[in-house]
Amino acid sequence: MSPLELDRSVTGLEDRWGRHARLPREQLADTASRQERLELTGGFLRRKARRSRSCATAASCCHLAA
Predict the structure, then answer these.
(1) How many CA atoms lie within 13 A of 53 on its CB side?
(2) CA quadruple 15, 42, 29, 32: dihedral, nearest 10
(3) In a designed cystine with 24, which of 44, 48, 50, 57 is the match (CB 3.0 to 4.6 A)?
(4) In the predicted model, is pLDDT for residue 56 greater than 80?
(5) CA-CA distance, 26 to 57, in Å (whole number)?
(6) What pTM value is reported for the model?
(7) How far is C-alpha 26 from the chain's CA centre?
């Protein structure tokens, strides 16, 4: 999904990432400070981005090998 499709919209985490969104949601609910919530969110997004790049790299390697 393009970021442009998300412009000015509200999308639930589970709508985008399914069951992988449950743990961050629970952690955020249990966290009292804004700073901790920002750190948890940043860490989740960084891990998600690394996995996405890894999947894209693997897919392009498979395509090259075919």
Answers:
(1) 6
(2) -160
(3) 44
(4) no
(5) 30
(6) 0.55
(7) 15
Task: Quickly list H helices, the chain.
Answer: 3-6, 13-17, 22-29, 34-65
Crossing angle of helices 22-29 and 34-65, rounded to 10°: 170
Which amino acid does the sequence have at 36?
A: E
Task: Give 3-42 pLDDT, tens digit per residue.
Answer: 777 677 777 777 877 777 787 888 888 988 999 999 988 9
Question: Cα dist. 65→9, 11, 37, 60 in Å?
Answer: 39, 37, 42, 9
52 neighbors 63 (Cβ within 8 angstroms): no
- DSSP secondary-structure letter at 6? H
Query: Which pLDDT score is estimated for 11?
Result: 74
State the residue for tokens 């919530």: 37
